[in-house]
Amino acid sequence: MTSENKINIPQTKALELIATELARDGYNQSEIKEKLHQAAFLATIESASQTMGSRVAPTPLFRIAYDQDSSSLEFTFLEGKGLVPAKSAIDVDYADFVFASFQCDRVALLSEGITGTGKTYTLEQVLKTVYDADNRRGIRLNTNMSNVLQPYIEGRVDPNEGVLRININKKAVREIAALFIDEQNRGDTNAILGLLDNQVVLATGERAELGLPIPQINVNGKDVKIDFEDEKVKPVAVHSAQNPPNPEYSGARRTDGAVGNRQVRINYPNMALNSGAATINMTEQFNHHHQTFMDLFTVKLANYLDVDTKKIREFLIPQSTKPEEKIRANQEYLNIHAASFDPANARNLFLKSAVESADHIIMLTGGNDLESNFNDELEIAQQWTDELKQYNANFVYNTSVDTKSQLILRIEKVRAAFNEALIERDKTKATKIADALALITRYKKSYEISRENGTSALDEFKTLQAPLTVRDIASAYAIVLNDKVQTKNGTSPVNVINQAFTDYVSLLTNFSSEVYNDEVKFDLNNPDQSIRYLCSYVAVNTIKKDENLKADEYATKMISELNKTSALLRGLDDGSDTKKLLVARVNSDIASLAGFIHQYRREIAEGFNQISPSDKVMPRYVALTDVVKKARNDVKTNYTLPRVERVFGI
Amino acid sequence: MTDNRIVQGGELDLESNSLEDVIVNPVTSDSKPVSSFVNGIKNVDMSYLDGRLINYLGAVGGDPSPSYNFIKVYNLLNPEITEIVKSLGNSFFKISDLRYEHSKSGRVVIGDLTLNPEIPYESLKRAIAVSIGDEHVDYFLEEFSDRLEITDETKNIDASKPELQPYLPGIAQVRKLSGKYTIMADVYLLLLTLNPEDREPLTFFFNAARESKVYPFSHKFEAQYTLSENNNADINEYCLTLSDMNTITQNPHIIPFHEIVRIGGENKIKGIAEYTDRLENFRDSLRNIPGP
Asked: Which of A313, A319, A434, B171 has CA 20 to 30 A from A622's CA?
């Protein structure tokens, strides 16, 4: 190993100072981590915005509007056009997505647009601001330089054999926080796959995970210890740009599918008209981005955390011009940055309604065609009805979808425009984007409220921490599906998303109103609103007070109740073809739960009989959930079990 | 171990018998989905029409006398009779004697809401289920059908028979709904002017036209039923007006002819001419509404 390739022991004095002071103020370990993450995140975007404000014009990409009163969601691609702010609407611009990408788990942006629109400029400005030159790399691909691994490899001549050996540069692996690949589609796009998966693998088999080491803060009372674990790294943020694969750009190819489904494609708008004269006095002749940023960041961070500003600055700002002092201070910053931008901090929980509405979006956009998707569901319900004859339960959904209706034809048109079918990775990508959108929505709202009420943005940011909602997940799917549409020709997946959202909210509220016998309105943030949850809940509700029933008796009562929920649901499709798909899906899940209750009735009864009868449903609901969890780990004999897991949200 | 990211639910404020009134259909040997209409239109999904009727009864507009420029709202439903209305469905209700009357802001359609004494056998079963429980209906009919003379399942039943009244306790209450009301701007309500047996095929075409959002459903004729008492909105916003009726009946068959053919073709309906005649007669009856 060369001396260049040696990994230095990280500097963690600033982190220790912050953790120690917070511990002394009574914060426990998880509270310290949370407060650090929130403070550093806000200090970063505030300082970066302030540093770049006069140099980068905003590029609005999406508007997400949700009206709580009418339960209506509107997702709009803004294409660079700045709209007048609207109540209940959040506008997301390009820089927001870049900031979110630092915090979230591998949200890789691919900016595509005609040359000279600034698609690389904004990104370079953000990277230059947040990271020192040693911690960011830019590669421009062309037919002669297609090796995207170049920043991570080093060559040396083997003194014994006299041949060139290529190895992974371990120092680079742990010090590069962000990577920018320009002209992605002029090189070997497949080589980028590894980077997007956060690893570098050489032909020799040598491999490494990429990213900054994440310091682990351990607090015991008032004692603070910082250490590092090999596998805990903050993934490198990989962003790319390219010209469209049009004939006027020689050598520019269409994005490879496997690369595309790992990236969020931003159709970078030509902002010349929208920004007008506002960009005339902007110049690239400014090279102290990171220095300016650090001056602002240190003060803001210290203020938010209420720690000694002078001490923080001593740790994070070089105290002399010596190279080793610069390296020391930068390492202190990187450790604060990695600890607070750990993607684990941005992973949100999901509300059940978010998961259910995502399932309906998947139903409308996945599989071979809508009719087959629908018939598959009917078949499951029919088969369980046949299997459960002894209970006289009828889950048969006696209807059909009109494949020639305008509604179905419109959705099929969008599906036909996809470059490939909906795949598992799209769902993972949607989850990551939903995390990013939720983060962006949260900090934008925090600043809006703080500006309005004169409160602290940090306090608002902390208060607004919440699980992912239908709004977040629907917007994320709009972006994912938009990426899958090969040629636009007026085709927009937004209509499909809106349809799924409308169907879901309508069925949920109608069904809930019937069960509660009172009007129920949709509440975006209510953790208990879910069709499947309500169905399974009423099934357990019916036996909560029963004592020492036999297995068959419990099963009969619960299956009879599920049969009623199914009958109720099947009457609520309003004749809408897309709603029928939703009803069919939920109905067959409910039928599968009935089947599960029959199959596992002995274990369920054992579980129930260990819990005293009660006015509360949850004790036995949890017992039933435990049987489902256990069945998941059994040797599989029932392949509709994932449907039951979906009912319980496990 | 899996990393579960879904927020788990908590206790709900729910009665233990919240689904007591839900009617379930027993399993039959012929419960496969109906996929075509080769032998005429049957097994039509009437739930949308039933839903519109319930909405209407929940927010029916009252007296449009010229002295008022607002609608006095009668909410005809209470929780008890809501359940009966749901069970009986539209077949028990009829709107007759459509006519125009002057309101302050123009002529609006008025009708008499009455109850059909004759209801289909299936509707009767559902109504009985409300009082004795759905699991006992078949047993009840086996034991009592002779005495009550309801042996022929293919014939409508006279629900007003005195012998039936003990088993249909809510019917008397529902009868109190009868009266003169304004008709809301909801084209589905017009189906209630037909006999129950004629409603089914025409509802099929209405459902298909609505799903495809073709005329008249491409227009505004699906009332929102957001009326509340002392609503001071203009009556024209909620009720069918003379001008609305002219718009609705401008096509010879209400639904454009080419759409009827499309719907018929896609569903393999035999004897489409019979249905175009029925739709034409229906349109004619709506064009000839008397009034000032």
From this structure: A434
Q: Do the Cβ atoms of A211 and A236 come closer than 8 Å?
A: yes
CB A213 within 8 A of CB A336: no
Q: Give the CATH number for residue A311.
A: 3.40.50.300
Q: Which residues of A24-63 are buried (b: 16+ CB within 10 A; e: fewer)?
A: eeebeeeebbbbbbbbbbbbbbbbbbbbbeebbbbbbbbb
Judgement on whether residues A28 and A125 belong to the same structural domain of the protein: yes
- Euclidean distance between CA atoms A385 and A567, whole angstroms: 13
Strands A89-93, A60-67: pairing is antiparallel
Report chain A residues whose CB lies below 8 A from the CB of B14. Answer: 515-516, 537-538, 541, 617
- Rounded distance between C-alpha atoms, residue A567 and residue A586, angstroms: 12
Helix or strand run (H / E) with residue A331: helix A323-340
Yes or no: say if A412 and A592 are a contact pair by the CB < 8 Å rule.
no
Which residues of chain B neighbour A359 with C-beta distances below 8 Å? none
Strand A223-227, strand A263-267: pairing: unpaired
Indicate whether A340 and A379 sit together in one domain: no
The reply to whether A302 and A388 lie within a common domain is: no
Residue A416 lies in a domain: no
What residues in A contact B256, CB-CB < 8 Å? Answer: none
| Structural domain containing residue A162 | 3-345
pLDDT computed for residue A102 by the predictor: 93
Shortest distance between the Cα of A546 and any Cα of chain B, in A, equals 12
- Which pLDDT belongs to residue A525? 93
Q: Tell me whether residues A350 and B5 touch, CB distance under 8 A.
A: yes
Contacts of A338 (CB under 8 A, 6+ apart): A177, A212, A213, A214, A215, A234
Q: Read off φ and ψ for residue B132, nearest 5 degrees.
A: -115, 0
* Interface touch A537/B14, C-beta < 8 Å: yes
Domain annotation covers residue A592: yes
Tell me if the pTM is above 0.80. Answer: no
A315 shares its domain with A209? yes
| Among A637-646, B154-163, B269-278, the least confident range | B154-163
From A530, which residue of chain B is nearest by alpha-carbon distance?
A: B9
Q: Exposure pattern of A604-623 as b/e (b: 16+ CB <10 Å)?
A: bbebbbeeebeeebbbbbeb
Tell me how close the Cα of A622 comes to any Cα of chain B, in angstroms: 10
Task: Say if residue B1's pLDDT is above 50.
Answer: no
A381 lies in the same domain as A258: no
Give yes or no: residues A391 and A319 share one domain.
Answer: no
Q: Can you read off the two tokens belonging to residue A105?
A: 């788990």
Please name the amino acid found at residue A336: I
DSSP B112-157: EEEE-SEE-HHHHHHHHHHHH-GGGHHHHHHHHHHHHT---TTS-E
Residues A308 and A380 in one domain: no
pLDDT in tens, A50-103: 998 877 778 899 899 988 777 778 888 888 888 888 888 999 999 999 999 999
- pLDDT-derived band at A172 (thresholds 50, 70, 90) equals very high
Looking only at the bridges linking them, the beta strands covering A237-242 and A178-182 are parallel
User: Are residues A516 and A528 in contact, defined by beta-carbon separation less than 8 angstroms?
Assistant: no
Summarised one tens digit per residue, pLDDT across range B231-257 is 556 666 678 888 888 888 888 888 888
Domain closes at, from A345, A367, A384: A345
Residue type, B12: L
Beta strands in A204-352 (DSSP E): 207-209, 212-213, 216-220, 223-227, 233-234, 237-242, 263-267
Contacts of A398 in chain B (CB under 8 A): 31-34, 43
**Would you say residue A568 lies in a domain?**
yes
As given in the structure block, the two tokens for residue A406 are 């305008």
Residue A484 lies in a domain: no
Residues A270 and A384 reside in one and the same domain: no
How many structural domains comprise chain A? Answer: 2
Task: Kindly state the tokens that stand for A94.
Answer: 């390009």
